[in-house]
From TrEMBL:
The keyword Membrane applies. It comes from Emticicia agri. CDD domains: ZnPC_S1P1 (cd10981). The lineage of its organism: Bacteria, Pseudomonadati, Bacteroidota, Cytophagia, Cytophagales. Keywords: Membrane, Transmembrane, Transmembrane helix. GO terms for molecular function: hydrolase activity, acting on ester bonds. This is S1/P1 Nuclease. The chain crosses the membrane at residues 5-28. InterPro entries: PLipase_C/P1_nuclease_dom_sf.
């Protein structure tokens, strides 16, 4: 999620500088990604996370709340990296230790630390599992899942994070929040079982590279579609004939344009949604293995596990069919 001032050019003739709150994947997306990731875990780990599903799922949006509700200045750069501002991606330091040594804090605060912060949280999660610190485990796992989801959102790796450099302001929330809310219930969220990551640093940068490669494509698809789509039909209008905006002041696209753009992306959002689910599950599982596979189930009362047993089995079956399990989530559009 980023907090920046963008210039939004209206379809008519005026322009205005407005503040956009960009919540990566939106509240709906982060919560469904986190919940789905739990089912990809091996049974001995999945049971523990399932016992605390409500906490982990709700907490998945806390990193965004820290930035905007609590005004935590340290939070903002954790959600993105403007790769273009660092030069070639091949020249970037691979580890957080090297990055913090190479760059001044001012630059990192401005241009982002997402891949390096993922590594930092991974270390903390592993240590919390080694120490059987239940609350820390749940809190850090949810945070880590959030940042990994951010890393799988292409515009979180680009300085053109809201299309503001190419007259496409508004596309960030459109891609990651409005479209998933519209079409996400039909996404196939089955990812298979979590896998162990041999090299966390390498995997982190694989995710960042892949996402960054998609940034230009998602912007180009929008530009191409606008060439033939009626300009006055791209955005919904309010009662005064102005561009309609959601509760976070983001422009709302029409259903007709959303349908065409979603199809033009050829499954990109659904694929990245699944990538985010896999990433969260893989990193959680790897932290647990590296911690020595502690028996986290023993941290819970046996009665809790027994009470959850019936729903646990139903939810696993639904996930194995690729279905999103029931979750009442706050929406943005």
């Amino acid at each position: 999620m980023k907090k920046r001032f963008f210039t939004f050019i209206t379809i008519v003739t005026t322009s205005a500088c407005v503040l956009f709150i960009l919540s990566s994947w939106g509240m709906w997306g982060h919560q469904h990604i986190t919940k789905s990731a739990i089912f990809a875990l091996p049974d001995e780990l999945r049971i523990f996370f399932y016992n605390h599903l409500d906490f982990v799922v709700e907490e998945s949006n806390v990193p965004d709340l820290r930035k905007y509700t609590l005004s935590d200045k340290a939070e903002n750069p954790r959600h993105y990296i403007d790769i273009e501002h660092f030069g070639s991606i091949d020249s970037l330091p691979l580890t957080s230790k090297l990055a913090y040594a190479k760059y001044e804090n001012k630059k990192l605060q401005s241009d982002g630390i997402l891949p390096w912060y993922i590594q930092d949280v991974m270390v903390k999660l592993t240590k919390s599992m080694q120490g059987n610190r239940k609350t820390e485990i749940l809190f850090l796992a949810s945070d880590l899942g959030h940042y990994l989801a951010d890393a799988n959102m292409p515009l979180h790796t680009s300085s053109n994070h809201n299309g503001q450099l190419t007259n496409q302001a508004g596309i960030h929330a459109f891609w990651e929040a409005q479209l998933p809310e519209m079409f996400g219930n039909n996404y196939n969220v089955y990812t298979g079982n979590a896998r162990y990551i041999e090299d966390v640093t390498k995997e982190t940068w694989r995710i960042i590279r892949h996402s960054h490669q998609l940034a230009d494509t998602l912007l180009a698809k929008d530009r191409d579609l606008r060439k033939t789509f009626p300009a006055d039909k791209i955005f919904q209008k309010d009662a005064n004939g102005k561009i309609a905006r959601n509760k976070f002041n983001q422009p709302v696209y029409t259903k007709e344009y959303a349908d065409l753009y979603h199809k033009a992306l050829n499954g990109m959002i659904e694929n990245q949604f699944r990538e985010a689910i896999s990433a969260a599950a893989n990193f959680w599982y790897t932290a647990w293995v590296n911690a020595g596979k502690p028996d986290l189930k023993s941290l819970d009362d046996e009665g809790l596990t027994k009470r959850n047993k019936a729903n646990y089995k139903k939810d696993i079956k639904a996930w194995e069919k690729g279905k999103l399990t029931v979750l009442k989530s706050e929406t943005e559009f």
